[in-house]
Amino acid sequence: MGIRLLQWLEDKTCHRVEQTAEGFELWLLPGKQEEFDELVRTIRDDMTGEFSAFPRGNDVGGFECVHIIVHDPAKFALALKSLR
Fold first, then answer.
1. What separation, in Å, do the N-terminal and C-terminal C-alpha atoms of the chain show?
2. 8 secondary structure, DSSP code
3. pLDDT recorded at residue 1
4. φ and ψ at 20, to 5 degrees?
5. Dihedral through CA 78, CA 17, CA 5, CA 74, nearest 10?
């Protein structure tokens, strides 16, 4: 499992994380628009065969959320568990 994806889930300086049936959603924290937009662009640009990312825009021209679908949930669960 890519360490970058794990880092994005662990480092919550500009977003909160919600687990979904398919993966995760990262949501913008108030006052962190610029940092969150940069993170979403990085996630979108770094997509691999391990996950897909679907950003959602907001009414100010930035992003409010990115939905990350993990392609191998069992492998990802093991990698996430090893960090805790």
1. 15
2. H
3. 47
4. -125, 175
5. 30
